[in-house]
């Protein structure tokens, strides 16, 4: 236990035996007074900060036994404002108004639950000092759009409030009336039945798995539109259809997990996606060993933000940027071309 943590010890009364662990802890007056929610308790259990009888607690749904000693360690709260951290950045372009970053996979964009430090925001504070726009608040200074933690590629950040307002308007419009380009490369299982198309399907939270997004029905969810075109196909499965494909995706809206959900929706989930491609593991097992090893080494969804284009929010100059896919992405693609 760290010196900054708070440790609570409870002994289960026989009258409370059989209660779910998370509920039992949430009902302890000491934790309620400290405003430790049941959701927070579940997170602490998952982090291994709760023990029963000196051993691991298992999961939040575990039933407590009479007389059991339960210990919960609550870490000290993180600073309210992100701190500067010397994290290397690949800067593609920078001026007084904005900065364009080529984000590596694995880097979280802004602090959030479970990722209070080590984020792009922490790196930007160190790199830019006090020059980041404050419109996004202390936890998202200058952030006008984001990439998933395990998606790599181009991302623009505002350094002034004027640039933030201009970029926010561009991202809200997404090229409908203003010049704007945001394009990705994705390696997917199978291949779409046509060379190009548009997926117009609203997205919302999954009804039972709240960490996931899903295509919604009956007027629910938020508008989501993805334009795609097939660039390459690889090999063939037992039915003669392509085993995999390289697809370009252009966003007309920018919803959470949009490309990942939309491509899964048309039967072509992203290779390596741990959330939306779980039903395609048999396809991975059917690949040659070198391809399987490349996908395992990738360890994430094969998605890269390859192009970003927009008029400069202050000068109006046309800005255009491209990013080469990282080596682990290219390794998977190379092995697929050998099918």
Describe this structure in words.
The chain has 339 residues and is an alpha+beta fold. The protein has three domains: 6-74, RNA-binding S4 domain (Structural Genomics Hypothetical 15.5 Kd Protein In mrcA-pckA Intergenic Region, Chain A), CATH 3.10.290; 78-173, 2-Layer Sandwich (Pseudouridine synthase), CATH 3.30.2350; 174-339, Pseudouridine synthase (2-Layer Sandwich). The protein is 22% helix and 25% strand. Strands 5, 6, 7, 8, 9, 12, 13, 14 and 15 form a nine-stranded mixed β-sheet that branches. Strands 1-4-2-3 form a four-stranded antiparallel β-sheet. Strand 2 (50-52) and strand 3 form a beta hairpin. Helix 8 (289-298) packs antiparallel against helix 9 (327-337). The longest helix has 13 residues, at 161-173. The chain is globular. The chain starts with 5 loop residues before the first strand and ends with a helix.
Describe the structure concisely:
By secondary structure, the chain is an alpha+beta fold.
């Amino acid at each position: 236990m760290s010196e900054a943590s708070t440790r609570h010890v409870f002994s289960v009364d026989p009258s409370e035996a059989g209660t779910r662990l998370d509920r039992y802890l949430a009902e302890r007056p000491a934790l309620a007074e400290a405003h430790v929610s049941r959701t927070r308790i579940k997170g602490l259990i998952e982090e291994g900060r709760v023990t029963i009888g000196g051993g691991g607690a298992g999961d939040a749904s575990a039933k407590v036994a009479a007389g059991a000693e339960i210990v919960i360690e609550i870490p000290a709260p993180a600073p309210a404002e992100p701190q500067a951290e010397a994290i290397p950045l690949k800067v593609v372009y920078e001026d007084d108004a904005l900065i364009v970053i080529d984000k590596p996979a694995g880097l979280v964009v802004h602090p959030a639950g479970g990722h209070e430090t080590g984020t792009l925001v922490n790196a930007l504070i160190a790199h830019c000092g006090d020059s980041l726009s404050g419109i996004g608040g202390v936890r998202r200074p200058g952030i006008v759009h984001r990439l998933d933690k395990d998606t790599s590629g181009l991302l623009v950040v505002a350094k002034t409030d004027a640039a933030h307002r201009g970029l926010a308007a561009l991202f809200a419009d997404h090229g409908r009336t203003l010049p704007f380009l945001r394009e990705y490369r994705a390696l997917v299982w199978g291949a779409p039945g046509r060379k190009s198309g548009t997926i117009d399907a609203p997205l919302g939270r999954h009804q039972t798995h709240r960490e996931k997004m899903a295509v919604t029905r009956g007027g629910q969810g938020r508008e989501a539109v993805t334009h795609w075109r097939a660039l390459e196909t690889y090999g063939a499965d037992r039915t003669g259809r392509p085993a995999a494909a390289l697809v370009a995706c252009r966003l007309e809206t920018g919803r959470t997990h949009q490309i990942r959900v939309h491509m899964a929706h048309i039967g072509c989930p992203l290779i390596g996606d741990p959330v939306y491609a779980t039903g395609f593991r048999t396809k991975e097992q059917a690949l040659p060993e070198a391809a399987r090893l490349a996908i395992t080494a990738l360890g994430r969804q094969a998605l890269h933000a390859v192009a970003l284009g927009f008029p400069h929010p202050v000068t109006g100059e046309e800005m255009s940027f491209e990013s080469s896919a990282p080596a682990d992405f290219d390794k998977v693609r190379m092995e697929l071309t050998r099918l």
